[in-house]
Design goal:
With 79 residues, the chain is mainly alpha-helical. It is 72% helix and 0% strand.
């Protein structure tokens, strides 16, 4: 994830935007920080999903085939 300083800056800019507004430079900075945050969040979430294994009540692996294909494809890219 993002560093604590960057997250603090995102929050600071959001508060300032609500109270007094932002300058053009601050708006650009806010946009860039949000994009970086979203990119890292999506990457982390995707990684989490790729490590999911779905098991039914009887203990049978019922992981969707699409997820299994993604897992296999990503394993082959890492080697």
């Amino acid at each position: 994830m993002l560093s604590k300083e960057k997250i603090d800056r995102i929050n600071e800019l959001a508060k300032r935007q609500k109270s007094s507004g932002l300058t053009a430079e601050e708006e650009e900075e806010q946009h860039a920080l949000r994009q970086e945050y979203l990119s890292k969040f999506r990457s982390s979430f995707k990684n989490q999903l790729e490590n999911v294994k779905v098991v039914d009540e009887e203990g049978t692996d019922v992981t969707p085939s699409k997820l299994e294909r993604v897992k296999r494809r990503n394993r082959s890219f890492r080697h």
